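Subject: for your reference before the review

Hello V.,

The reviewers asked for a structural picture of the protein, and I figured it would be easier to keep everything in one thread rather than splitting it across files. Below is the amino acid sequence we used in the manuscript, unchanged from the supplementary table.
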Amino acid sequence: MTEARAVVPATDLVSGPLPRAIMRVALPAVGSALLQLAFLLIDIFWVGRILGPSALAAISTAGFAVWMLLAVGEMIGVGLTAVAARRHGEGAHGLAAVVSGTTLAFALLAGVVVGVVGWRLVPLLFAVMNTPPEVTELGRRWLSTYLVGTPLVLGFYAAEATFRASGDTRTPLALLLVSVLVTLVLDPVLILGLGPAPAMGIGGAAVAAVGTRALVLAFGYGILNRRRLLRFAVRDWRAALTVLRIGAPTAATGIFFSLVYIGLTRITTRFGTTALAALGVGHKLEGLAYQVAVGFGLASAAIVGQNLGAGRPDRARTAGWLSARYACAAAALPALAFLVAPAALVGVFSRDPGVIAAGASYLRIIAVAEITMALEIVLEGSLGGAGFTVEPMLWSGSLTAARIPLAAWLAGVFGVAGIWWTISLTAAGRGIAMAALWHSGRWRRAHA
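And here is what came back from the structure prediction:
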């Protein structure tokens, strides 16, 4: 491999005031994360408003399975950010481009395999969740269509991580804005069959999602290629294996998290379709604070990676704590909204009184954990940027696993609110665990 080919240099994150560096990278990343949430909220808005509670419950329960797919994407994103950011921090921009190109190729191939396997497992998934027949049929139709776009989803994770590792979070923001605007128009057109388009019902929402993924990946690839942030002529499979090694614990955590939520869905099913719909809507609204934290976590991962590559671990440590403080302050705003106006928020997505009542209960209870959730997400991202991912996986996994027996017990005592309290308390525990790991400093000795 060689450094002969010129590349666009990475954004300098190893010098200058840290608050400015964090905000310069984090604000576009936060915008991108919120646009990711908007992408999901548009689906549940149109589906809930047009097709009703059963369709809303279907897309919500199917969404927990999509988390497994997104967990594979996170494996690619976290691992590539850590490795490529470290190379940029070392000044080896050509090597970073080789790693990114190899990883993008792997992501597209892996997407084909994951999509085929997922498509074959769709019937088993809904059988395990024991959802009502109408919810099952609608959910299968939406999920089977969405899985066709798996290579596009994983490819975009690799492209976004390539931008992010170089310190550029503005381009992914622009790409996601395009995807949200396109989805906003396509969803009702394909669901209702407006104009020349056929009426596809819930399947139309999935087609819109797949189509917009294809569009933004094509644009992203073109921009990366022009900036020479990707190299395909040379392959570095050893570096790609390092990407997978670093990202695998994050993927394992995400997949395990999805399996636990599938178990929680089975417990929630006994309280009816309205409770399932409320779980989905409440979880998506909870994403307001979550996605802001994701943005700061992504920025912190890039800053931590570059500073460790530049031999500045103390600056990396400060960046993690400072990013977490910003995210926690931001999380306080949706937490307050969940306490003050939960019914109004849920009512945006459903007119059903049962869904509104159960969803409002979810938001009031989960508000307690919004700030600790922000702490967890940012510091887990910081640890990932350092290439230190196994211990966070073990802590997060054990606390997440506790949700199943705890929810089963509390649901028998407090009804569906017991499930909401289980989610809230275990989320708080994960935040405390990530803070303890970052404070320990053991991540300084990780290799990427």
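For the response letter, the relevant points are probably these. The first helix runs from residue 18 to 51. Residues 1-10 have pLDDT under 50 and may be disordered.

Happy to draft the paragraph if you're swamped.

O.
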